[in-house]
Amino acid sequence: MSKIKTSFFCQNCGYESAKWLGKCPACNEWNTFVEEIITKDKSNPQKQSWKEQPSAGEMKTISLSEVKSTEEKRLLTQDAELNRVLGGGIVPGSIVLIAGEPGIGKSTLFLQLGLHLKNVTTLYVSGEESEQQIKMRADRLQMTNEDFYLLTETSTNIIFQEIKKLKPKVVIIDSIQTLQTPYIESGPGSISQIRETAAELQRFAKETNTPVFLIGHITKDGNIAGPKILEHMVDTVLQFEGDRHYAYRILRTMKNRFGSTSELGIYEMNETGMRPVNNPSEILITQKEDQLSGIAIAATMEGMRPLLIEVQALVTQSVYGTPQRTVSGFDLRRLQLLLAVLEKRGGFHFGMKDVFLNIAGGLKVEDPSIDLAVLCALLSSYEDVPLNPHICFAGEVGLSGEIRAVNRIDQRIAEAEKLGFEKIIISKYNIGQSKENEKKLLQKYNIEVITMSKVEELYQYLFQ
């Protein structure tokens, strides 16, 4: 009886060892050895993959010119946010990996997806929860579906036997780290098990044209647990992000062979599950009765999606001598850069001031176009003068105090106009030096578009 042969390889340099080593003798890196399979056990007839390899007579090469171009028919879900992130719906035969923090709502979102797919046979395979636990969650979601089936199993051999009997149109695996294949003797969640079970599911998806969703864990560093090859094997990688203390979640595309990687979906967690947020700008802007200083509205882009978000700043006198710089949802080094610009170009003395900055709603923003709103919020708090609540900002600030142009300015202006803003301040360089371009831009929208090139101009316009 043949045995499985394994060896240990350094993931940094490829050094091979018969046993696990803490430190690689070749590259001197620590904790880089993982077990890899060299020979699989094929002797057991019970241990069969999804489908046997085709014989030589069945295999055939084909010229590229013989391949017919057809538009891929996608399966549309009732979740418009998920359709957007996937590039327009579920592609038949695709394999999608979804990863996120524990408790973020991955299982809830895809249980909701399966229950929403009416007249589509869906198999939900859970290796972490019992049928009773899943039923309790479905009752909380207040959804039923006669075409939705459950299977609590971790062995791929049994899973594929049930798949052959049921013939589902969609398969959801929760989670890939709990599956184990009889080919490998190591425990579930190991490098070898994740790679082999994912390969079996990949073959099944491609050969049967059945979409497969793999829910995955992440490590404490925020990376997807398992080998990096797992992300290469799948067609789409989605990252489910958000702070568990806030209601909002972001489904972000990290890789997509069938659409753009610039799309994202926004959800709100409530007692009945994940609710897609079709117009997040209205939620991310706090409705206030009184005008308060230190608040500015930024027209930013999350992927291809325009968002209007609220930037809150608080500038106070430092009590302890060393000024504090505290941020939430924004890059601390970027804040220090903007403070230096205000010190040098505007003459504002932040050296003895504590500065606190917050992006409302728990979002984390990396778009440089938010610079202008951050700068205005800082000045508003510094002067203790509220800004006009009907003005929003879109612009990057350079080290010399210039307001730089940002991309997709038309989408930002249109979003601000849709939400009822009266004015938007942008960079003069977004429309060029031509007066005709400026005139066309002003006539195109009902919102007043104000162009500026220097931070000094902005301060005089808002506070003098």
Automatic annotation (TrEMBL):
Residues 71-218 form the RecA family profile domain. GO terms for cellular component: cytosol. Pfam families: AAA_25, ChlI, Zn_ribbon_LapB. It comes from the Bacteria. GO terms for molecular function: ATP binding; ATP-dependent DNA damage sensor activity; damaged DNA binding; hydrolase activity; zinc ion binding. One of its GO terms (biological process) is recombinational repair. A motif (RadA KNRFG motif) lies at residues 255-259. InterPro entries: AAA+_ATPase, DNA_repair_RadA, P-loop_NTPase, RecA_ATP-bd, Ribosomal_Su5_D2-typ_SF, Ribsml_uS5_D2-typ_fold_subgr, Rubredoxin_2. Plays a role in repairing double-strand DNA breaks, probably involving stabilizing or processing branched DNA or blocked replication forks. DNA-dependent ATPase involved in processing of recombination intermediates, plays a role in repairing DNA breaks. Stimulates the branch migration of RecA-mediated strand transfer reactions, allowing the 3' invading strand to extend heteroduplex DNA faster. Binds ssDNA in the presence of ADP but not other nucleotides, has ATPase activity that is stimulated by ssDNA and various branched DNA structures, but inhibited by SSB. Does not have RecA's homology-searching function. NCBIfam families: sms (TIGR00416). This is DNA repair protein RadA. The lineage of its organism: Bacteria, Pseudomonadati, Bacteroidota, Chitinophagia, Chitinophagales.
